[in-house]
């Protein structure tokens, strides 16, 4: 191991900015620009300056440690990938414009790897031959290229970014499951050790009910994904994909069908208010045209929305009826309902309404609603289906506790690929029974640069970044308030002693005003600041400030190394 050296702020290449850069919306993007960590080269292309690079390397080392502990082996594949491989797998065309394509001087085509299933599968073909050699789990940490339609938010969605990608080759489903589960555990550890609060969200469920893909979502307002999760049982899902068992309220009335004059009340809000009833007790009707031209009326609880993804699965590329289409189908905007529905319209009702018998709903007549409408008695339902977007407060589908809502950043994903690539690329092994079989594969990716951005997104305040110790570019900064003299020399000695104790330390030796130094150190977010001034030294103390809490403490000079070493050791992960 190399010796820890003191870095000098006067020599550090970290050009800070006083103002928020106009181009940045997200806290992480703004702060990385302001703290002199990154600079944009072109859309989605960033240079990582020394502070960012140090933090990235720490994240990578945490990943390496977890991967190696789980039995994976690090290696490195070429970034350029031959078009032939992509043609074999079928992805040369399927990947579309996101694949960055180049050709060499002989006009041979290549792609800058966006991911490496093809390359790794090609690598092991004809070399991994027997079940006896399996499982094998290989990974690399490398720049990836994707010509994203909208590169944005700094490192969150770049066109060149750092990814750890890993691939396993297994002989049996049980073995794949084992590797996959080990990777899932390692991924949870990686998030935790980087200081990320993240939820494992089931992205895909297998036939036997277990998950075959999980995305780790770092919780952050800035996240692109809307999530619901349960504090009770740990269930978490993408809002788009989640289902629920909402308890719906019955509408008003005495159980008989009543037509009520509701002049001008064409919205759920107005109807609920008129009946003095929660919106959940009303039924929302949505008229649409399915891809095959069938007119459909969907009914959902009044306080929920029709989910676009779920509707698309059921109806293909559908659209909500236009005013003309409503007229053509004999429907009245704001007063659509299941009773007396014109012939030929398919009635599809959300699952959560099964068993509810007293509906307040449109009467298919302008300015009228029904109360007490009962399925089976007053109208027939053609199909029950999961139609709604789950909301915070809805019951957890597993344990019934109310779900919480959050937004998330996808930082990593584990995936059981099965034989998708091994089959198309002819990668087989000889199994115990002497038969030739395609490998079962898994793939496991961590967005390394995105993880760093997500860490900052979760750890910042109005003054700047608040690094968790485990991934901080420097764990301690020693700030001298004097430009020279005894205090300056003492600060230098303390920095050296900290480095000798294996602590990553930067010495703010710049000839700047204290105010500028404090602002920069807060902005760069080092977990501990040691402030060395004449006045403290007269009493034999220095001040230690913890960035996260703002707490300050006078510590005797001779104890400061121990004081910090103890705290840092505990927080290093
Ligand atoms: P997204 O849905 O955000 O586009 P993805 O599901 O396509 O991501 P994967 O193929 O699963 O991404 O890649 C593995 C990881 O690489 C992701 O979990 C994410 O952290 C990271 N990643 C993907 N695309 C980018 C990008 N354009 N910039 C930075 N990191 C990225
Ligand atoms: Mg993904």
What does this entry show, briefly?
The protein is of the alpha+beta class and 573 residues long. Strands 4, 8, 9, 10, 11, 12, 13, 22 and 25 form a nine-stranded mixed sheet that branches.
Bound molecules: adenosine-5'-triphosphate, magnesium ion
Enter the CATH topology name of the largest domain.
BirA Bifunctional Protein, domain 2
Oligomer: single chain
Number of domains: 3
Q: Runs with pLDDT <50, length 5+?
A: none
Largest sheet: 9 strands, mixed
Q: Which architecture of the largest domain would the CATH scheme give at its second level?
A: 2-Layer Sandwich
- The H-level CATH homologous superfamily of the largest domain, spelled out, is Bira Bifunctional Protein, Domain 2
What topology does this entry show?
Blueprint: E1 7-8, H1 27-34, E2 38-42, E3 45-48, H2 50-69, E4 73-74, E5 80-82, H3 83-89, H4 91-94, E6 100-103, E7 109-112, H5 117-124, E8 136-145, E9 160-170, H6 173-193, E10 198-205, E11 211-219, E12 225-229, E13 236-238, E14 258-261, H7 268-275, E15 283-289, E16 295-301, H8 308-315, E17 319-320, H9 323-328, E18 346-350, E19 359-362, E20 368-373, E21 383-385, E22 404-418, H10 420-424, E23 428-430, E24 436-438, E25 440-447, H11 448-458, E26 460-461, E27 464-465, E28 476-480, H12 486-500, E29 505-508, H13 514-524, E30 528-532, H14 534-538, E31 541-546, E32 552-556, H15 560-571
Parallel strand pairs: 1-29, 4-8, 16-18, 18-21, 28-29, 28-30
Antiparallel strand pairs: 2-3, 5-7, 6-7, 8-9, 9-25, 10-11, 11-22, 12-13, 12-22, 14-20, 15-16, 15-17, 19-20, 22-25, 23-24, 26-27, 30-31, 31-32
The chain binds adenosine-5'-triphosphate (ATP) and magnesium ion.
The site of magnesium ion has 3 residues, from β22.
């Amino acid at each position: 191991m190399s010796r820890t050296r003191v870095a000098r702020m006067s020599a550090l290449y970290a050009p800070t900015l006083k103002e928020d850069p106009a181009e940045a919306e997200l806290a992480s993007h703004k702060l990385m620009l302001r703290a002199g960590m990154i600079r944009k080269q072109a859309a989605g292309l960033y240079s990582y300056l020394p502070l960012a690079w140090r933090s990235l390397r720490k994240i990578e080392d945490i990943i390496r440690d977890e991967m190696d502990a789980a039995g994976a082996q690090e290696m490195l594949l070429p970034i350029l990938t031959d078009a032939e491989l992509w043609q074999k797998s079928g992805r040369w065309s399927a990947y579309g414009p996101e694949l960055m394509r180049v050709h060499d001087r002989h006009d041979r085509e290549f792609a800058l790897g966006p991911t490496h299933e093809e390359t790794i599968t090609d690598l092991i073909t004809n070399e991994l031959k027997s079940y006896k050699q399996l499982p094998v789990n290989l990974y690399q940490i490398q720049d990836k290229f994707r010509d994203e339609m909208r590169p944005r938010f700094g490192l969150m969605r770049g066109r060149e970014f750092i990814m750890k990608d890993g691939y396993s080759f297994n002989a049996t489903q049980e073995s794949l499951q084992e590797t996959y589960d080990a990777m899932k555990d390692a991924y949870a550890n990686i998030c935790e050790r980087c200081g990320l609060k993240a939820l494992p969200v089931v992205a895909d469920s297998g036939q036997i009910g277990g998950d075959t893909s999980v995305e780790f979502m770092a919780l952050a307002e800035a996240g692109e994904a809307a999530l619901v999760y349960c504090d009770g049982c740990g269930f978490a899902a993408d809002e788009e994909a989640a289902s629920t068992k909402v308890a719906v309220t019955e509408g008003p009335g005495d159980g008989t069908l009543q037509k009520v004059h509701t002049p001008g009340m064409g919205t759920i809000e107005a109807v609920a208010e008129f009946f003095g009833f929660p919106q959940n007790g009303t039924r929302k009707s949505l008229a649409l045209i399915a891809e095959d031209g069938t007119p459909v009326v969907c009914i959902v609880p009044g306080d929920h929305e029709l989910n676009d993804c779920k509707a698309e699965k059921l109806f293909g590329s559908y659209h909500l009826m236009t005013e003309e289409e409503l007229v053509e189908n004999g429907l009245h905007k704001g007063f659509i309902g299941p009773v007396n529905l014109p012939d030929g319209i398919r009635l599809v009702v959300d699952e959560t309404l099964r068993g509810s018998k007293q509906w307040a709903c449109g009467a298919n007549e302008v300015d009228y609603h029904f109360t007490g409408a009962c399925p089976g008695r007053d109208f027939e339902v053609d199909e029950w289906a999961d139609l709604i977007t789950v909301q915070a407060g809805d019951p957890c589908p597993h344990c019934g506790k109310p779900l919480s809502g959050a937004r998330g950043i996808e930082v990593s994903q584990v995936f059981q690929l099965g034989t998708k690539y091994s089959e198309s690329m002819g990668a087989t092994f000889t199994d115990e029974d002497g038969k030739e079989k395609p490998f079962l594969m898994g793939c496991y990716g961590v967005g390394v640069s995105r993880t760093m951005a997500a860490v900052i997104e979760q750890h910042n305040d109005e003054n700047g970044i608040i690094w968790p110790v485990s991934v901080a570019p420097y764990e301690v900064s020693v700030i001298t308030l004097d430009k020279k003299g005894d205090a300056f020399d003492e600060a230098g000695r303390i920095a050296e002693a900290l480095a000798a104790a294996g602590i990553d330390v930067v010495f703010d030796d710049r000839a700047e005003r204290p105010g500028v130094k404090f602002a920069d150190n807060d902005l760069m977010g080092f977990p501990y600041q040691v402030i060395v001034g004449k006045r403290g030294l007269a009493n034999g103390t220095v001040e230690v400030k913890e960035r996260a809490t703002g707490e300050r403490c006078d510590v005797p000079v001779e104890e400061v190394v121990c004081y910090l070493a103890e705290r840092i050791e505990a927080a290093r992960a």
